[in-house]
Design brief:
The protein is built from ten helices and eight strands. It has helices at 13-30, 50-60, 75-85, 104-113, 130-146, 163-171, 179-186, 209-221, 226-256, 263-296; strands at 2-9, 36-43, 64-69, 90-93, 118-123, 155-162, 190-195, 303-306. The radius of gyration is 25 Å and the shape is elongated. Bound molecules: uridine-5'-diphosphate and magnesium ion.
């Protein structure tokens, strides 16, 4: 069995060499069991020496394939590129910053041999800041109520995918990619195991609170149109409240005569309703924006340099542009 390791790298010059050493060690241990390995590293437009390091690795180790983007296209694009350029019978997707312990690959391969198409590593949240743990928990509780696929806290991109899962993912050509959701959407027999979270050793996480918030909204919006439905219900609820309130005021006027006070009520109603309308417009705008991006049909990434000549035959390759060095 050929196992492809797909790892996106963004400004990882300090760790990528060590990462490769560690996975190489794992590869050597898997070799006697009849498993070959290849490494697909995607340089996501790093501004440091990541590409040079990858080129060196490619010269030293014939199993290294690298793809380098013309600029930073984001991790989702890097993952897609990695999957397209991987030729393995199964693919292990993992971060290149050693936060996903490579020793677990053996465990994953064992489980995949038991017939699972997705072997998912779930991290504990030990070592995380308490604020992030709590917001994550709240977020998952909310989002699982809203989207159709099930998203699990601590489950990320660290997983083994069988060839048919990879092909299924590659067949989803949408521009706005939320891979957590895509993996869950594809389905197939899956199993999950837990591992202890490792704290980042070098560099900085590229996630700020704001980017996490945006990521969360992406998750919410890219999977269904339930937010639109929620807006509809909110509108109906408000209309009902307005009707009841009007009836009450008219009733009071009939019983006690006309009274003029009501400035506060008036201002509250005007501003609150304006706020609600803006939110609904925002929700509609989000969907329209997504349609806009899909319709443009631009490639997910542009390749600046690679040592991969062809992707696996017969697999969906996307536009030819994606592959032009
Ligand atoms: N990454 C990437 N492009 C980006 C940001 C991150 O390819 O624009 C890669 C990064 O090199 C790492 C993985 O995605 O291998 C996870 O990134 P990071 O460690 O910053 O995120 P976290 O571990 O905090 O979720
Ligand atoms: Mg990380």
């Amino acid at each position: 069995m050929l196992i492809s390791i797909v790892a996106p790298c963004y400004n990882e010059e300090e760790v990528i060499g060590r990462f490769h050493e560690v996975v190489q060690k794992v590869a050597n241990e898997l070799l006697p069991l009849g498993h070959d390995m290849e490494f697909v590293y995607v340089d996501d437009g790093s501004r440091d020496r990541t590409l040079e390091v990858l080129k060196q690795l490619g010269e030293l180790d014939a199993r290294v394939r690298y793809v380098s983007f013309s600029r930073n296209f984001g991790k989702e694009a890097a993952l897609l590129a990695g999957l397209r350029h991987a030729s393995g019978d199964c693919v292990v997707v993992m971060d290149s910053d050693l936060q996903h312990p490579p020793e677990l690959i053996k465990r994953m391969v064992e489980l995949s041999e038991q017939g699972y198409d997705q072997v998912i590593a779930k991290r504990t949240r030990s070592g995380d800041r308490i604020t992030r743990t709590v917001t994550a928990r709240l977020y998952y509780r909310l989002i699982n109520r809203l989207v159709d696929v099930e998203l699990v806290d601590g489950v990320g991109d660290f997983r083994l995918l069988s060839r048919r899962v990879v092909d299924a993912i590659l067949a989803l050509t949408e521009y706005n990619r939320f891979s957590k959701g895509l993996f869950a959407w594809v389905g197939f027999p899956s199993t999950t195991f837990e591992y202890e979270n490792a704290v980042r050793e070098h560099g900085r996480s590229s996630w700020s609170f704001r980017s996490l918030l945006n990521y969360g909204l992406d998750g919410l919006l890219s999977f269904n149109n339930r937010p639109l439905r929620a807006a509809l219900y909110l509108g109906m609820g408000l209309l009902l409240c307005a009707g009841l309130y009007t009836a009450w005021i008219v009733g009071a006027a009939l019983i006690h005569g006309v009274q003029t006070p009501g400035y506060v009520t008036m201002i509250t109603a005007v501003t609150a309703l304006a706020g609600v309308q803006m939110i609904m417009l925002g929700v509609i705008g989000e969907y329209t924006g997504r349609i806009y991006y899909e319709v443009k049909g631009r490639p997910h990434f542009l390749v600046k340099a690679t040592n991969v000549e062809r992707t696996r035959a017969g697999e969906p390759r996307g536009t030819a542009k994606d592959l032009i060095p």
